[in-house]
Amino acid sequence: MSAGNKRGAFIVMEGLDRSGKSTQAARLLERLQRADARVKLLKFPDRTTGIGITIDSYLRSESELDDRAIHLLFSANRWELASSIEESLRAGSTVLCDRYAFSGIAFSAAKGLPYEWCRAPDISLPAPDVTIFLDITPEKAKQRGGYGEERYEKEEMQRMVREVFQRIGSETSREQRWVVVDAGQDIDLVTEDIWRIVEPLVSGVLGPVTRLWE
Ligand code: Z5A
Ligand code: MG
């Protein structure tokens, strides 16, 4: 971090299952650490908290919950980390986040809940400075070893999720940037595309942390 009143950048990775979010987040973390940047990697859902343990059991189909109840728990799981995200940013750390509020809307709206209702509980969360959407067709994602055993890992569901993500991207303001990266390319090309987006943010960002959809 160089200039005095800069804060850390908040960078979110979004995308369908198997789009490469975790792979690319790990690569980015390593690259930033090598560049001596202070950096934190988060992942949502954070399955380690009390709320996260309930979410984990639901995703593994070990328990059932009303669609609205699980949606609110996913959001609460973000709110329980919101102040620590802000503190890290203010202290000058770059924060990388593997999935965020956009996944919350995309998966619940794809199940049929109203879009605006899905968005409401995440309004005012710390807003990313950039969201990198790793775009891939469900067909191509499936070729990466097939979908797993968890609840939403079905091709038709992923198709609907992708449509909601595309709507979110088209409605995102210029300030709260949404950048689409072709995640179907060779893994190293995806890494380079992401680095081109992130590199200008590594030295920090001017201005306060903004809030989602405010
Ligand atoms: N969910 C929700 O409903 N509401 C919410 O608010 C939130 C989440 C936050 C769990 O998510 C579920 O929670 C998820 C959304 C819902 N449901 N679904 N389905 P998760 O993040 O814990 O799990 P994951 O994201 O299911 O998917 P993933 O498997 O972790 O995908 P990924 O991280 O995007 O992919 P990856 O692990 O980096 O890569 C997958 C494989 O592809 C791996 O073998 C890689 O080596 C390979 N790969 C990666 N990139 C490439 C390229 N470029 N070419 C070839 N192969 C590649
Ligand atoms: Mg992952």
TrEMBL record:
GO biological process: dTDP biosynthetic process; dTTP biosynthetic process; dUDP biosynthetic process
Recorded metabolic or biological pathway in which this protein acts: Pyrimidine metabolism; dTTP biosynthesis
One GO CC annotation: nucleus
Top-level taxon in the UniProt lineage: Eukaryota
Alphabetical UniProt keywords: ATP-binding, Kinase, Nucleotide biosynthesis, Nucleotide-binding, Transferase
Family: Belongs to the thymidylate kinase family.
PANTHER family: THYMIDYLATE KINASE
Database matches in HAMAP family: Thymidylate_kinase
Protein name as it appears in the record: Thymidylate kinase
